[in-house]
Design a protein that fits this description.
The protein is 38% helix and 14% strand. The protein is of the alpha+beta class and 467 residues long. It has a 5-stranded antiparallel sheet with strand order 2-1-10-9-8, with helices on both faces.
Length: 467
């Protein structure tokens, strides 16, 4: 499945010395690939190696090498993608009746930013979860890929209590909270503290937090800067699941219990209280780097994490950490990257609110920005995209024969609401190009059939000469 992707990476490396455009293309390929060091991409490497071995065995049986030319010269003699050719490839899928009023669409050369084909690309449509691409890029641009979200414990000497201060990290785990409590107990012992109270501080977000417009449900918890594992009640790490409607208080109670277990003398139940400005820090728990959080958010379509990252983007821009503030900050983020945003309205950062609007043009321009060699800090917005037929929300898609060309070489963010189906990402073509695409369909009549139509369109790009 990943042989074409592996072959694509290898051929782009051959281009580096050929011409300046080859350098750009190689940089794009590297941005798409990401480091092969751990987790999901290590698994991809193993699968690619297995595919290599299988191909070699097949070639031996066939009596040949099985090699094919996959990259035309970069001296201007290679194939030209034309609007007519792309229309012929895409129209059969994008005119599927299941897509309702049809898909607004754009296809762009990821290396050059050239728009190759558009259809209502400037029309605002409900993006569903494809808005997370913009959430990712604006957060990375504002905060940097090494930024970490930090939960702290501070000492309120006047009231002889420790204050658990929410740092806006929805990925904080029970184990990390327990470790934080143990280190806090050690710090209290060092200062010979006696009986202490416990408070929790959620002042990082306006009014301590807010409910998403769709409310607390299996798709998202109450939005607050203090919570354990996204307020999940069943120990899961991704996907819809029952959520707590008071995740901050739950986290504070768990911390107080862990603090007592670690030997501290804890009195009373935790209360909400803002830590004094001069309160000494006793301990801290830091999240994974932002680059890893972005990959998790995109791969799993993590709504809680998307809303958290956008609120940190808002804070970095001097805005309030609420829905209105993140909308202003994300719009300003597009401005900073030189991306026009006519037709755009940010109702949230996760795409759960159907009042949001994005255009296919903005989505493809954002993908191009993430691939820009001058902006390596944005790279994880590409490497986090699910791989067709392999990872994240695309794991169970691209299994049908009609989608075979896209398996392993399409990386895309999915989007699904009732009556809304979207897909945006990249496709590596047989001749070595990488195309960015965005398909936004509203008024869809059959979710499964609409998904299949969008997958066929992405696969048509992946298998397309389109001249």
């Amino acid at each position: 499945m990943l042989e074409a992707l592996r072959r694509h990476r290898s051929t782009w490396r051959l281009v580096v010395g050929a011409a300046a455009v080859g350098l750009v293309a190689a940089a794009v390929a590297v941005a798409l690939t990401g480091p092969w060091d751990a987790g999901r991409r290590a698994a991809e490497r193993e699968q690619a190696a297995a595919a290599d071995a299988q191909r070699e065995r097949s070639a031996a049986v066939a009596g040949g090498t099985g090699g094919v030319a996959v990259l035309d010269p970069v001296d201007g003699t290679g194939p030209r993608y034309t609007a007519d050719g792309l229309a012929r490839a895409l129209d059969p899928a994008l005119e599927d009746g299941a897509l309702g009023e049809g898909a607004a669409a754009a296809v762009v050369d990821l290396a050059t930013g050239e728009a190759l084909w558009t259809d209502h690309a400037g029309t605002g449509r409900a993006p569903a979860s494809t808005v997370k691409i913009v959430t990712a890029v604006t957060a990375l641009d504002a905060l940097g890929p090494d930024h970490r979200l930090t939960t702290t414990v501070r000492w309120d000497a006047e009231h002889e209590r420790v204050v658990l201060v929410g740092g806006g990290d929805p990925t904080l785990t029970e184990d990390a909270l327990r470790d934080l409590a143990e280190r806090t107990a050690g710090a209290l012992a060092d200062r010979d503290a006696g009986t202490v109270g416990v408070a929790y501080d959620v002042s990082l977000y306006r009014n301590g937090g807010e409910r998403h417009p769709i409310g607390v449900n299996d798709n998202i918890a109450y939005i607050t800067p203090l919570q354990i594992n996204e307020g999940r009640l069943d120990g899961s790490t991704h996907g819809p699941t029952p959520r707590s409607d008071e995740p901050a208080a739950d986290a504070a109670r768990a911390f107080a219990d862990a603090l007592a277990d670690a030997g501290a003398d804890v009195a009373g139940d935790p209360r909400e209280h803002t830590a004094p400005d001069d309160a000494e820090q006793l301990a801290a728990a830091r999240s994974a780097p932002l680059s890893a959080l972005v990959e998790r958010m995109l791969t799993n379509s993590d709504n809680d994490l998307a809303e958290a990252l956008a609120r940190h983007t808002a804070l970095a821009a001097g805005e309030a950490a609420d829905a209105a503030g993140l909308g202003r900050a994300m719009t300003a983020g597009l401005d900073a990257l030189g991306i026009p945003h006519d037709g755009v309205r940010f109702a949230d950062a996760s795409g759960l609110d159907r009042d949001g609007r994005l255009t296919a043009d903005v989505l493809t321009r954002t993908l191009v920005a993430a691939a820009d060699p001058d902006h390596p800090e944005l790279r994880s917005a590409l490497t986090g995209l699910p791989v067709a037929g392999f990872s994240g929300t695309l794991t169970d898609r691209y299994a049908d024969p009609g989608d075979a060309a896209g398996a392993g070489v399409v990386r895309a963010k999915t989007g699904t609401l009732t009556g809304v189906n979207t897909l945006a990402g990249t496709a590596a073509t047989p001749d070595g190009h990488v195309l960015a695409f965005a398909f936004l369909a509203s008024g869809t009549t059959d979710a499964d059939a609409a998904e299949a139509a969008l997958d066929r369109a992405a696969s048509a790009l992946a298998g397309c000469g389109c001249g």
